[in-house]
UniProtKB/TrEMBL annotation:
ATP-grasp domain ranges (all copies): 149-359
Protein name: D-alanine--D-alanine ligase
Residues at the active site: E30, S196, S337
Pathway given in the UniProt record: Glycan biosynthesis; Cell wall biogenesis; peptidoglycan biosynthesis
GO annotation terms (biological process): cell wall organization; peptidoglycan biosynthetic process; regulation of cell shape
Nucleotide-binding as UniProt keyword: yes
Organism in which the protein naturally occurs: Gordonia asplenii
Gene that produces this protein: ddl
Length: 375
């Protein structure tokens, strides 16, 4: 995208042209992460371009306009490290729509179920509001690890071996035999619909497999069971709509046995290496694969596309190189998160990134509003 597609500054004294509703918090396990992200985004967004309205959603689903943050912005006072979903309780539809004197754009900074999975996006579609990020389908496909794997498989995007397990459909007595025959231990057991490593276990034996399945079934009735790959974890940031741009790749070096919730948000022991140490050919290959996956899954606006890079194998089989792990349609977005950092390393600053996301939201909205509904 070129600079001239970015949201314009308003004339001096006229006030910002756009109303930017920043949704944060939410009912998922990733609530706290979202509150931290919101503080950073609200602080960094350009106040000459946006009338910023932070709206927090509590863990039980109440919506609150964050008046303290709005006052702090007006008084130019520093914001806390995390915004809390508190202030004036508001009706979701009323606060989203605003008073129609200004164009609203919604920035859903909500991770996981009821935020990143197409539900909020569906509400915004019904309200005819532009919003940052993927639409209903792209969000829903990427949130469901089993469905995303089916799409990737159909499009020939390489990934690790896996088995889908559906509670009430697949026979739990057969699963052990299937895992042993098709994957071998250890395996990763994951609820299809979660994020931030919640509900995920690496199972090293049959007893752990059984426990892992029971744990994952607390979060979803569809699970994926994957072979455990020995590989580097490389991520790529994608930004754009039909012809997206791709950042330099970054590498995660987990601080524990795998990149679990503690490692992501509590201990912070994982190392982030940006740009990842890769050959030019490997870098080109992963960037190209990232766009293929992004396009196949109907992503728009932004996504972080996560890969495993298998360079060698203990069993003597040929290494498979790039394997898609997953796509995050609302990736971690604090200035210390991979997504903004990969763009930083690629020459795009955090405030500029916010501008680009808003411009992409408006572009998608305008394009889709132009479609005929007549027959
Ligand atoms: N098949 C696998 N082989 C090896 N490590 C894995 C595998 N699947 C997941 N992991 C590890 O677990 C972490 C979390 O899994 P992931 O599928 O990315 O879940 P989430 O959506 O919660 O981020 C990964 O970053 C990686 O460290
Ligand atoms: Mg992940």
């Amino acid at each position: 995208m070129t600079d001239d597609t970015r949201p314009a500054r308003s004339a001096p004294g006229a006030g910002p042209l756009l109303r930017l509703v920043v949704l944060f918090g939410g009912v998922s396990a990733e609530h706290d992460v979202s509150c931290v992200t919101a503080a950073h985004v609200v602080a960094a967004a350009d106040r000459s371009k946006y009338d910023i309205v932070p709206v927090g959603i509590t863990r039980d689903g109440g919506w609150f306009r964050q008046d303290k943050a709005i006052a702090a912005l007006a008084d130019d006072v520093e914001l806390p490290n995390a915004l809390l979903p508190e202030g004036t309780e508001v009706d979701p539809i009323v606060i989203l729509r605003g008073d129609s004197s200004k164009q609203t754009v919604v920035l859903p900074l909500l991770h996981g179920p009821h935020g990143e999975d197409g539900t909020v996006q569906g509400m915004l579609e019904l309200l005819k509001l532009p919003y940052v990020g993927s639409g209903v389908l792209g969000s829903a496909v990427c949130m469901d690890k089993a469905m995303a794997k089916d799409v990737a498989a159909y499009r020939g995007i390489p990934q690790c071996r896996w088995i889908e397990f559906r509670d009430g459909v697949d026979d739990s007595r057969e699963i052990v035999g299937k895992v042993e025959a098709q994957l071998g231990l250890p395996v990763f057991v994951k609820p299809a619909n979660m994020g931030s490593s919640v509900g995920i276990t690496k199972a090293h034996n049959i007893k752990e497999l059984d426990d892992a399945i029971n744990l994952a079934l607390r979060y979803d009735d569809v699970l994926v069971i994957e072979e455990s790959v020995t590989a580097r974890e490389i991520e790529v940031a994608v930004l754009g709509n039909a012809l997206p741009e791709v950042s330099l790749p970054g590498e995660i070096r987990p601080g524990s046995e795998f990149y679990d919730y503690e490692d992501k948000y509590v201990t912070g022991a994982a190392q982030l290496v940006i740009p990842a140490d890769l050959s030019a050919a490997d870098t080109d290959a992963v960037r190209e694969l990232a766009v293929r996956a992004y396009t196949a899954m109907r992503c728009s606006g932004l996504a972080r596309v996560d890969f495993f890079f298998e360079e060698s194998r203990l069993d003597g089989e040929p290494a498979r190189g790039w394997l898609l792990n997953e796509i995050n349609t609302i990736p971690g977005f604090t200035p210390a998160s991979m997504y903004p950092k990969m763009w930083g390393a690629s020459g795009l600053s955090y405030p500029d990134l916010i501008d680009q996301l808003v411009a992409l939201a408006l572009e998608t909205y305008q394009r889709r509003s132009g479609f005929s509904t007549a027959h």
